[in-house]
Amino acid sequence: MSDLKKSKAAEETVSETRKSHGKMTLKQIAAWIAIVLLVGMYVFTLICSIINSPLAEQMFHASLYCTFFIPVIAWVFIMTVKLVKGNGDDKENRDQKK
User: Could you tell me if 38 and 67 are in contact, meaning their C-beta atoms sit under 8 angstroms apart?
Assistant: First the structure.
């Protein structure tokens, strides 16, 4: 009986994924923003080092810092949205306990 419930839950998850396939979620938008920021920072750092700019060393340190800082901030943002908005896990947990 529990296999039937798991199968039905999996089918519902797949159908929800198909419905939202065309829409960008807030998580995806946050992830893309983080990717663009990191790639932009790396490209700018590379350009500064190629032209031998006095900013090259500072940009290298900023890139190292942002490599860790931006993903952490994106994760905190995503988790905050998940907590505020809710993600439906509570309903699934209640169904499994029954």
Answer: yes
Q: Does pTM top 0.85 for this prediction?
A: no
Whole-number pLDDT of residue 11: 62
How many whole angstroms separate alpha carbon 98 and alpha carbon 96?
A: 5
**Do residues 4 and 95 lie in contact, with contact meaning Cβ atoms separated by under 8 Å?**
no
Q: What span, in angstroms and rounded, lies between the C-alpha atoms of 13 and 19?
A: 10
Which tokens hold the place of 42? 């790396």
Nearest in space to 70 (alpha carbons), one of 58, 82, 79, 62: 62
Q: Record the tokens describing residue 67, joined without a space.
A: 């490599």
